[in-house]
Design brief:
single chain, 363 residues, alpha/beta, Aspartate Aminotransferase, domain 1, Aspartate Aminotransferase, domain 2, 2 domains, 8-stranded mixed β-sheet, 3-stranded antiparallel β-sheet, 13 strands, 15% strand, globular, disordered N terminus
């Protein structure tokens, strides 16, 4: 958040700049080039750098390196899924609200995007069943851990229901897991893919764990899908950027990734706590998600009609917030507010929430 000239930027879900491991990335790149420089600088396998695929596969039970695909960030992998498997006449079900860029990718492919209400413990499964039954979607896109934009974590019970519904109606799920390792309290729930490996493609990236600039995303899925996507990738860019993958591989095999994750959790935990505490202090009339990790806390202001005016007034008073419309497939959510906290210090968080409350109370 920048307070230059009274502007408070409370809108982007990005890592704190002080967490970016510049020296560590330099050491990792030097080590990777020393060990395997010719392979990292040449055209390679469209599936990505084999040593990193092998390391990632070893972290997943019963997965081989041929079931792992690397790309230039997880968003590119999602775009390839949409381009290859979706299109006019296809339907995708998503949580509502959900990640705005995922909605953009699906709509750009010509797909009809159908939102399913998100509750405090995950998607409303009875409504999801109705959508599966009536619309027969090609995909269900879900972020079960510390969801963007709400911070919601799907309960084990609902994960099990979703896994069963995928089988019952023959739907494939894309489980997006960029925040899963960033849990600041509580115990983890099982990955959705662990409950249904045949029907779940899992994507994630190292943007939040190492840095967005390495541009390394990964996908785990069945071998047929990986073969089809890797052929599409080869026709698109021949091979993904290997240097970033070499950096990430060194982070993983040397234990630097886990060290970095612990540093991130130590820094971000008090920032999440500051967000929740200041919401209680300044906006007790609102509702919000008691997030336990990730990057976001979703807030619902008490009045939808006033919500429209709130965004207009907030902008005129120097508050930079993300418009809620992009998080909803058919717009809406006028009174929804996404609060990203990792890149903000606790004093900045308090200042931002206090100003949000001042605008709201004036309305």
């Amino acid at each position: 958040m920048s307070s230059e000239e009274g502007i408070l930027q409370f809108n982007r879900g990005v890592p704190a700049t002080e967490t970016l491991p510049v020296r560590g990335a330099g050491d990792a790149l030097s080590a990777a080039l020393e060990k395997d420089g010719q392979r990292l600088l040449a055209y390679g396998d469209s599936r990505g750098y084999l040593p990193l695929r092998e390391t990632l596969a070893a972290d997943c039970d019963g997965v081989s390196s041929d079931e792992v695909l690397l790309g230039n960030g997880s968003l590119q992998l999602l775009d390839m899924i949409a381009s290859l498997y979706l299109g006019e006449g296809k339907v995708v079900a998503v949580e509502e609200p959900t990640y705005d860029r995922a909605i953009t990718i699906f709509k750009r492919a010509g797909t009809k995007v159908v939102g399913v209400e998100l509750e405090s413990d995950g998607v409303k499964t009875e409504k999801l069943r109705e959508v599966f039954s009536e619309l027969q979607p090609e995909l269900f896109y879900t972020i079960p851990d510390f969801q963007n934009p709400t911070g919601t974590t799907t309960s084990r019970e609902k994960r099990e229901r979703v896994a069963a519904l995928l089988d019952r109606y023959g739907v494939t799920a894309v489980e997006d897991s960029p925040y899963r390792r960033l849990r600041y309290r509580g115990e983890p729930e099982p990955e959705l893919r662990s409950l249904n490996q045949e029907r779940v493609l899992q994507i994630s990236s190292f943007s939040k764990l190492v840095g967005p600039g390495v541009r390394v995303g990964w996908l785990v899925g069945d071998s047929v899908t990986i073969d089809e996507l890797s052929a599409y990738a080869e026709d698109t860019y021949i091979t993904p950027v290997a240097l970033g993958q070499g950096i990430v591989h060194e982070f993983m095999v040397n234990g630097w990734l886990e060290e970095n994750v612990e540093k991130l959790k130590s820094l971000y935990r008090p920032r999440l706590e500051a967000t929740l505490e200041n919401l209680e202090k300044y906006l007790p009339e609102a509702e919000w998600v008691e997030a336990k990790g990730g990057f976001f806390v979703g807030v619902w202001l008490p009045d939808r009609e006033l919500g429209r005016r709130f965004y207009e007034e907030a902008g005129s008073r120097g508050l930079v917030l993300t418009s809620p419309a992009g998080f909803f497939p058919d717009n809406g959510g006028e009174n929804f507010l996404r609060l990203p906290f990792p890149a903000l210090t606790p004093p900045e968080i308090e200042s931002g929430i206090k100003r949000i409350a001042e605008v709201w109370n004036d309305l």
